[in-house]
Structures are given as C-alpha cells and as structure tokens.
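G., the chain you wanted modeled:
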Amino acid sequence: MRFDEAYSGKVFILSRQNHEKADVILYGMPMDWTVSFRPGSRFGPNRIREASIGLEEYSPYLDRHLEEVNYFDAGDIPLPFGNAERSLEMIKAYVRKILAKGKFPLGLGGEHLVSWPILEAMFEKYPDLAVIHIDAHADLRIEYEGEELSHSTPIRKVCEKFGAENVYSFGIRSGMREEFQYAKESGMYMAKFEVVEPLRKVLPTLLHRPIYVTIDIDVLDPAYAPGTGTAEAGGITSKELLEAIHLIAKSGVSIVGADLVEVAPVYDPTEKTAIAASKFIREILLGWVK
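Predicted structure as tokens:
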C-alpha cells in the first residue's frame, strides 16, 4: 500500500484529502505480533482516529488550530498478521517513501517494535539524527525468550547500529538490571522516572540536530492510560506528557518525525487512553510541524 492510495476508513480529525499538498503523512502500524504480555495494540491506530472526533480542533496551549497544519491520514499499512520480519520490512519501505517526498512521518502503533524500521529509514536520511525515547520501559534487551524481534528490543537495536550516544530516554521505570547497566556503560542518556525536567536540560544540547521522537503511551501511569499491553505503575500524568510535548514544541529543536505506540483499547472500556493519545497527536501536529 502506498500512502497516496485512497483510504476509505476512519481518519484523524480534519485530515486533508490531498496527500500531495500535505506536510505530514499520518499512518498506522497495526502490529502486535511480538508482545510479551497482552496483545491488542494492533487496534490502537483506528481507535485513536475514532477518539479524535471528540477533540476540539483548537489548542489553547499552543494557540493554533488544526486548519493551520496540512496533514493527510493515509490509514493503516496492511501488515501480514503474525509475520514480524515482513511487517518490519514493509514499515521501513513505507517510511522511506514518505521521506522521499519530503514529508513528516507521524506513526501510530502498534507495539513498540514498529519504531525500529522507522528509525532505520530515518537514519538513512539523517545520519546525525538524535532519538528522544519517552517510555516506561528501557527496551534495551537483546532478545526476549530467545526472540530478537521483540517489542522489548528496539532501543537496543538503535544503540548498537547507530550509536548509543544518539539516544535519549526519559521516564524509564522498568527493565532488567542488565538493561540499566547497559545504559550506564554505553554512552546513551537515560532519565529514570521523570520526563519534563530532564528533557528541559537536554533539549538545548540538541538544537542543531534533527530529532525523531518515539512515545510509548505506557510512560503514563495506568491511572491515566490503562489501555496498554504492559502497564507499569508509578508513571507520569497526562498533564506532564502534554507539558513535555509543549516543551519540545517551544524549544526551537528540529523534529523530523515521530510516533506514538502501544495503545491497546481492549483493556480500557472508559476509552481514556485513546482519548489522551488523540490529544497528544493533535498537540504534536500543532507544535512539532513547522
């Protein structure tokens, strides 16, 4: 599927009808083939779109309206169920096409492994890319129960292939002892438990670099986002994640792409997780796209 093909499903609120004039391509990656606890994030992208219908189109935080941003919701990549390797290949090829058109890729997951092929494509275009990773989990495992293609491994893959010094993780509160040891020794940056204040200190050092941001919804405490596959107590609030998004928006850094992953709506009958995720996407569109 190309991102310029007709899409008849639900789209994010105020999505444009013409991909050629769009600055942003919004796309879904309905994959949860490698999750280690609870599946269901493959239904996340469409639920985020559905929840967006309840959003106001104006952001009082940024004093901007969605009419001011040209974005095109291309729908979901038709990933082959259960085939992780082929799915990752398709995601990378898809993002390469978006980048070749000079557009901003904004992905909806799906499990966190989907960020790995995106980042491979991003590093091809931006060799000096910095990665901001906001998550409850370190995602620094080499493998999980013998499987190297796992949602617990994408940040380790980035560190090993593109350099740990290019990775900045925030909000981390879960992982193996070996993962935290690796973070200390590898040269990556890791802020445990908190997001906003460490981010405030790091952003000025990244002013002259292209940046990709990957956000796992489970960085939020389960009180704010119970609809995720691996919920982790002790997280930040929705207000704090909004503050982080706005801090990035107002810092002057150059964001060249982003994703938000791990929304699993089946575990949240209140829909607060999808509603929060759709608001975060609105603020990303209004704040990060120049």
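The longest helix spans residues 84-100.

Shout if anything looks off.
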